[in-house]
Amino acid sequence: MLRALFSRLLQTLLVLAVVSVAAFWFLKLAPGDPVSLMLGAEYSPAAAARLTHELGLDRPWPQQYLHWLGGFVRGDWGTSYISHSDIFRQAVYEALPITLTLSALSLLMALLIGIPAGMVAALRRGGPVDWVVSSVAVLGSAMPSFYLGIVLVWVFGVGLGWFPTLGFVRPWEDFADGMHHLALPAITLGAYYAGLIAITTRSSLIDVMGHSFIAAARARGEPMWRVVCVHAMRNVLMPLTTVIGLQLGGLLRGAVMTEVVFAIPGLGMLITTAVLNREYGVVQAGIMLTALFFVLVNLLVDQTYQWLDPRLRRR
Amino acid sequence: MVQVDFKNLLAQRLAADFSRRNFLGAVGAGAATAVLGSGIAQAAEQRRGGTLKWAQLVPPDTLDPHFTGSLGSIKIHNNIYNGLLKIVYDGKRVGFAPDLAASWEMTDDKTHVFKLRPNVKFHDGEVCDAAAVKWSLERVKDPKTGSPHAWMLASLESVEVIDPLTVRVRYSKPFAFFPVAMNGATGRAGTIVSRRAVEKFGKEFGRNPVGTGPFKFVQWRENELIELVRNPDYFEPGLPYLDKINIQLIKEPTAAVAAIMSGQVDALDACPFQFMSQVRGNKNLQVFGEAEGNYAFLAMNTKRAPFDDPNLRLAVAYAIDRELLVKQGYFGDAVPAYTLISPPMADFYDPAIAKSGRGQFFDLKKAQEYRAKAKVQGEIAPVYVASEAFTSNGSSGSRNAQLIIPMLAKIGIKAKLELMDPAVLNKRTNAGDYDFYDAAWEGDVDPDETMRPEWSSGMPWNRVGYANPEFDSLVLRASQTVNVAERKKLYVQAEDLMMAKDAPIAVLAHMRVFKILNKRTEGFKYVPANLMNMHTVSLKA
Amino acid sequence: MTLEQLSPAAAASAAAPSPAVRRPHRWWRPILRERSAVVGMVIVGAFALMALFAPWLATHDPTLQDFSVALQPPGADHWLGTDSFGQDLYSRLLYGARFALGIGVGSVALGLAGGLLVGLTAGLVGGRVEWALMRVVDAILAFPEVILAIAFVAVLGMGVDKLVYALAVSFVGPFARIVRSDVLQVKSLPFIEAATLMGVPRLRIVLRHLLPHVASSLLVQAGIRISTAILLESGLSFFGLGVVPPTPDWGLMIAEGRGFIAMAWWISTWPGVALALLLVGLTLLGDGLRNALAPKSQGG
Predict the structure, then answer these.
(1) Contact criterion met (CB < 8 Å) for C240 and B253
(2) Dist. CA C108–CA C102, nearest whole Å
(3) How many CB atoms lie within 10 A of CB C15?
(4) CA C82 to CA C88: how far, in whole Å?
């Protein structure tokens, strides 16, 4: 067991290494560089050459990569070209918690809405309730998040004035205001997951309800709610975990558009802005964080699987 | 020998003088034509305190005025720093009023003496005296600093401290540009920064600005906000009123508009044109804004075929329907441009230019005539580069391109639009790898600043490669001429040359620039130089 | 990866006689019996028809600018209204179906092909090769999709074909994983071993026995990924890195329309609704196919 875990960890490191090389290489391949962006209208070949040299961007790529790698593993992630701020602090202490908060809240909402909705739809299968719930669920997972976000902002923010239209207030500083600001973004980001969760819950519950052991429990005289919530849902957990697990890794990255629309300074916004500004160090940091998160979550999910279903403990 | 009143001459020139980036402190109280806006009025009625929330779309790059290239930064740092002079506006004319300098004298045409206000302190407690001013100016000029604005002080010979409150600035040549260069407000070379802070923070000074202005810098959270707090020791008595300013940095224009419309923020620094009618219709908002000193243009790469041919370029210039562009690209909030000089440059702008036959305008027949004379006949497919990513009001994104391309199709030019992210756009325009791109020069008030650095041969901003020595000498002479009528004549010649003969660009429109404030604020003084001065602003109860 | 791998269904279908023995024309029967599959097919089919017959169904040239009618609400002349350039939204919607389906199907097909290749190789060859390939796949999966797409577009430039490549890359990973685990499952089944022992060439085994088993789950995944591809593409347009205007593309229309949401909300709405409907259709189709092709599970 420990050996397996160790081997998994090693594999994780390897994957992260590949990701870091790929990220570095891609961005370098992309035309454009931070120097001409930073100089803007004051660009001149002489100024550009000087700034390039200052930033160390004229050294050969492998050397730049190794330089970055050496610093990275020591915790020195460099400083951003434009803001001169410490990248580690910016990414890990400022941006990451924000995105994690947003993602966690969105997932929570998605679970709280999606699971009951899916259950209701499954139990009233074929009826109008099922139809409505299924339609809304599918719709939720089919809307581009930036579009949904903007619609929500104009309807609930500008039109009705119920929620703030943008910005992020740290819930650990001011909980009520923080939640108020997170409401619309969480709905925007969570809609997709809520839809997916509802659909999955519904179809697997329908599946499970048809099994013989359910009929047996009913025959035994067990109340419906117990049959559903205890016996049936226990079997729904697995496929649900699959779906959530699959999506979970992508939570951090799905937040990109929501963060931009709502002006939330999270990891998604950080990476996207950095890609456009060719801030190599920041992009590396951001991608490593999302990749790490993704891999760790997958590890966790896989372990949860094996714990949930002993049949899968093969390797 | 007759004593020439240099100051007066310069002051006359200054009354219409404005430079987009060279707001250096200049002339003082004695100037005959300078209009003073005191900003101390209404002190008794306005409420003190409160936090103003302002949404900012134009991204700031750094708050070190000696290094900034962004109008977004300038709006913000004008609340943190002072220059020797500042710009004021009475609704009709732009003028200069003393800021850090209490007076300005010119002892001869190369020497300027400033008397500073007493007891002015930087935010960190350091005294702002003649030595501090000297240090700040020399910082810009020093090649070791590497300031991109050093050229504004190129012929600065010396800065001498006469006494703790008097500074003498000597130039090696008469520099008509000087006052513009010395204007600290939106400026840059003449904005006075704290020596102690610069020495302490070094390269990070841009994220830790220390000045003498009405607001002190608190923090800058990347991609999130910039926070300013009231400076209780500000030298203008009674100002400022606000306790804090919270500047939200926003990327998505529609989100920012939603924020101001819903009242979540109190001010907005720029607004996409299509929302203006809605914003004006919102009874909680007040809109400030007029046509400012700017022009949008279509740049043509004169360094390679087919646009190395002036006939083809002229064809393009006459084929563009500017009225349509104004209506559909700027939703009516712009004025068709015939030449580079824009309406606020009152002494130089000809309001009847439409009837004069000068400059560029829409004339399809003329366009076709030039097209027929062009070297390359048959279909031409030039590359039009543009970028949408995170564009705010300043750039049209691809909108102008989409409007212009069908217009050019009418003269057999089938331009192909290529979209890319801003970094690539930058690279390609710098490298000359394009045929068309469109851009704008903004925040100008003086014809010199709007023409010379952009279009003189070999200047870095001159990306199209326009090189006409006659034009160069015309605008150079104009910049050294103080007599307004003479200058005007020179500019007419220069423009006729550039617009109607060479046409390296097709000028499009002069845009209105807006600042939008919620009616719960009061006291905002609009200055047509893309400024958001919060000195006199307060929040109603 | 998905539901059916966990249920006994996969094993059950593998235990059935090899597909070569079944009569080919009956495989569509279970699909038709599944209602959601039918509804899905109808919806997707309708969009496919829209895309195919766009030039005949459209009332105007989708990129024709006419400022005298710009920003008009739906009316007699322009059934769905016009956008800020005066372009007819109805016609743009029709042509947009081409791009949606084209980009969606194209990128998924490419990704599928790539994933198939990688997954088959990994599953069949095994050993170090498999290990290395799967680590690469993991790396691709870990990469944020939007960033991957943005980076690809930055490198390759813009244009519909380049967009398809950029999107395809993010699909290779998921497909490779699915193919590989299916291959692993099937590989160890007795009849496969028997075939190998009998000397049946590897390729034949792959084509005749492996692929059909893999096909059904791949098909379902493909349907889901088409939705993802289209959503991703509209996200790129939001950043100004999708298709080049004035291409009539739903993602671009939504992105452009968002700047006019207060005064001309219909510009974003029609493509948004169309997108949602298409995705609904694809999801239903995918779900229905999966339900139809996987036999009902036995008792728990």
Answers:
(1) no
(2) 10
(3) 11
(4) 5
The per-residue pLDDT for range B255-275, each reduced to its tens digit, is 889 899 989 999 999 888 888
CA distance C56 to chain A (A): 28
How far is residue C115's CA from residue B148's CA, in Å, rounded to a whole number?
Answer: 51
Selecting from A142, A150, A276 the residue whose C-beta is nearest the C-beta of C279 gives A142
Chain C neighbors of A271, CB-CB under 8 A: 144, 147
pLDDT at B351: 85
- Cα–Cα distance for residue pair B347/A280, rounded to 1 Å: 48
Selected residue of A16, A132, A138, A211 to mutate for chain C interface (largest C Cβ count, 10 A) = A138
> Is the separation of the CB atoms in A58 and B445 below 8 Å?
no
Chain A contact present for B281, CB below 8 A: no
- Nearest Cα neighbor of B295 from B356, B385, B357, B360 is B360
Are B401 and B439 contacting, i.e. CB atoms less than 8 angstroms apart? no
Q: What span, in angstroms and rounded, lies between the C-alpha atoms of B178 and B168?
A: 13
The tens digit of pLDDT for each residue in B280-291 reads 989 999 999 888
**Torsions phi, psi of B233, nearest 5?**
-100, 20
Which pair of tokens denotes residue B431? 């490298």
- Three-state DSSP class for residue C103: helix
% of chain C beyond a pLDDT of 70 = 82
User: What type of residue sits at position B250?
Assistant: I
Q: Is C233 in CB contact (< 8 Å) with chain A?
A: no
Instruction: Scan residues 399-428 of B and list those with Cβ closer than 8 Å to A.
Output: 421-428
DSSP B120: -
Entry pTM = 0.81
Q: Which residue of C has its CA nearest to B407?
A: C65
Q: Which residues of B380-414 are buried (b: 16+ CB within 10 A; e: fewer)?
A: bebebbbbbbbbbbbbbbbbbbbbbbbbbeebbbe
Q: What is the pLDDT along chain B (541 residues), one digit of tens a residue?
A: 333 445 445 554 444 333 322 233 333 233 333 333 344 444 457 888 899 999 998 888 888 888 877 788 888 988 999 888 888 888 777 777 778 888 888 787 778 888 998 889 999 989 998 999 899 888 888 878 777 677 667 777 888 999 988 988 888 766 656 666 666 555 567 788 899 999 998 888 888 999 999 999 999 988 889 999 999 999 888 889 999 999 999 888 888 898 999 899 999 998 888 888 889 989 999 999 888 888 999 999 999 888 988 999 999 999 999 999 998 888 889 999 999 998 888 788 888 888 888 889 999 999 999 999 988 888 889 999 888 755 433 346 788 888 999 999 999 999 999 888 788 888 888 888 999 998 888 877 778 778 887 888 887 778 888 989 999 999 888 877 777 888 889 999 999 999 989 999 999 999 998 999 999 999 999 888 888 899 999 998 7
Question: Residue B456 CB: number of other CB atoms within 10 A?
Answer: 19
C157 contacts B418? CB cut-off 8 A: yes
> In A267-291, which positions are buried (b, 16+ CB within 10 angstroms) versus exposed (e)?
bbbbbbbbbbbbbbbbbbbbbbbbb
Judged by a CB distance cut-off of 8 A, whether residue B284 touches chain A is no
String of DSSP letters for B49-104:
--EEEEEE-SPP--S-TTT---HHHHHHHTTT--BSEEEEE-SS-EEEEESSEEEE
- List of E strands, A110-259: none
Taking the mean position of all CA atoms in its chain, how far away is CA B478? 20
3-state secondary structure of B105: strand
| Length of chain B (residues) | 541
Contact residues on chain C for B398, CB-CB shorter than 8 A: 240, 245
Alpha helices in B415-518 (DSSP H): 422-431, 447-455, 469-479, 484-495
